[in-house]
Write a structure and sequence with these properties.
Layout: E1 11-15, E2 21-26, H1 29-36, E3 43-47
Antiparallel strand pairs: 1-2, 1-3
């Protein structure tokens, strides 16, 4: 089986104050931080990837 290295890595999304996703998911926290900085009330949250 081929390796899917991204499968179990943490991903991030940016949500606004209402909890609506405005960006993501992305494997890069720095990118998510930059997108969150563009709007007021935005925050970065981790998306947990389940699996073995």
């Amino acid at each position: 089986m081929p390796c899917s290295c991204q499968k179990n890595k943490t991903q991030y999304e940016v949500v606004d104050a209402a909890g609506k996703r405005v960006f993501g998911p992305t494997p890069y926290k720095t990118t998510a931080d930059a997108m969150a900085a563009r709007g007021t009330g935005r925050k970065v949250q981790e998306i947990s990837k389940g699996g073995a």
